[in-house]
Specification:
Distance between the termini: 36 Å
Number of helices: 5
Helix content: 10-25%
Oligomer: single chain
Strand content: 35-45%
Order of helices and strands: HEEEEEEHEEEEHEEEEEHEEEEHE
Structural class: alpha+beta
Radius of gyration: 20 Å
Largest sheet: 8 strands, mixed
Shape: globular
Number of strands: 20
Strand order of the largest sheet: 1-7-8-9-10-6-5-4
Length: 322
């Protein structure tokens, strides 16, 4: 099986989307042990099995799932089921090779799971710094991602403390669609809910398969975002997604986009046909721009182009905000 390109892109954007050269780092032999028990101060990050002890001023945003405070600091959690954690993927040497500006890098163990904690510059917004705690085992990878105002030592100390408060309860049960702010009718298809990474919900045939590892699995991903303010912003958003696919080796030979409005919702539809590693593929994207946020329907298939195009077009039209 080949790694799911969407998972690969997400992890690399979040973890290695940085620039510069590394500064003085922590002793690579030092390991920070994190083995906490739940306390009344711990709050579960919805859509995950991860708990953090957060200051009271951190407020949760359900549309763009993250905690934030008035100082501009944000914390989000992403859990990648069936994504094996390999510590060699996150070494400081690899960070140097990729041109990261890492201020601090530590080995950690979270409930006996290997991991790393680091603080670095943030390429997406140079006014911010970034902190990451990433850990896992042979069955999963968990990422706790924080952003805060650059060189704000007090905020960094708070983020560091929050990272070290983490508790992961693998036995915890929750409704996997608890963060879903949408409705969709899948009754005329064989697609069923399969898995989620926080606010991205994946549907596959009969809910089967491992979409985090099998790139050729036909799938529907529905993701929630903050509001896109204009049609041009929606167009740029989709173009950035397609450009990322191209950078990762996809050939997109036929791409068509159209926009329309129904009631108070603006729609931006893109159909792209191409190939990856010599195999034909279909990318179908429909953005819904509402008053409260944006929904993205993202269909992907490597077989039976016309069949899946019809399924994606028909099914996406049933997507709506709750």
């Amino acid at each position: 099986m080949r790694i799911n390109i969407k998972l690969f892109l997400l992890l690399n954007t979040l973890i290695f989307g940085l620039v510069g050269c590394s500064n003085q780092l922590a002793d690579s032999d030092k390991v920070i042990i994190i083995d906490n028990q739940l306390t009344p101060k711990h709050v579960r990050f919805k859509g995950t099995k991860t708990f953090l002890a957060l200051p009271k001023e951190y407020i949760f945003d359900k549309i763009d799932p993250q905690f934030s405070n008035q100082n501009g600091s944000t914390i989000r959690v992403l859990e990648f089921k069936d994504k094996k954690f390999i510590i060699d993927d996150y070494t400081k040497e690899r960070g140097d090779y990729l041109g990261m500006t890492i201020h601090e890098w530590y080995k950690v163990k979270v409930h006996n799971m290997e991991g790393v904690m680091l603080f670095s510059d943030n390429r997406e917004d140079p006014s911010l710094d970034k902190g990451m705690l990433i850990f896992g085992d042979s069955l999963q990878t968990t990422l706790v991602l924080a952003k805060f105002m650059k060189q704000n030592r007090l905020e960094k100390q708070t983020i560091n403390k929050i990272f070290k408060s983490v508790v992961k309860l693998n036995s915890y049960k929750f409704y996997p669609l608890e963060l879903a702010l949408f409705k969709i009718d899948l009754s005329k298809t064989n697609f069923k809910f399969c898995t989620n990474v926080t606010n991205t919900f994946t549907f596959t045939f009969s809910g089967q398969g491992n979409p985090n590892m099998d790139i050729e699995l036909s799938r529907i991903d529905i993701t929630q975002y903050t509001k896109l303010s204009s049609l041009k912003e929606a167009e740029n958003f989709v173009n950035n997604i397609l450009s990322t696919y191209i950078k990762e080796g996809y050939t997109l030979s036929d791409t068509k986009s159209t926009s329309y409005r129904i009631g108070s919702i603006n729609y931006f539809e893109t159909i792209s046909k191409g190939s990856y590693n010599g195999k034909s593929n279909l990318i179908y994207i429909l953005l819904l721009q509402g008053e409260s946020g944006t929904l993205m329907f993202h269909g992907m298939s490597y077989t039976e182009y016309e069949k899946y195009l019809e399924i994606f077009k028909t099914t996406s039209k049933t997507l709506e905000f709750k």
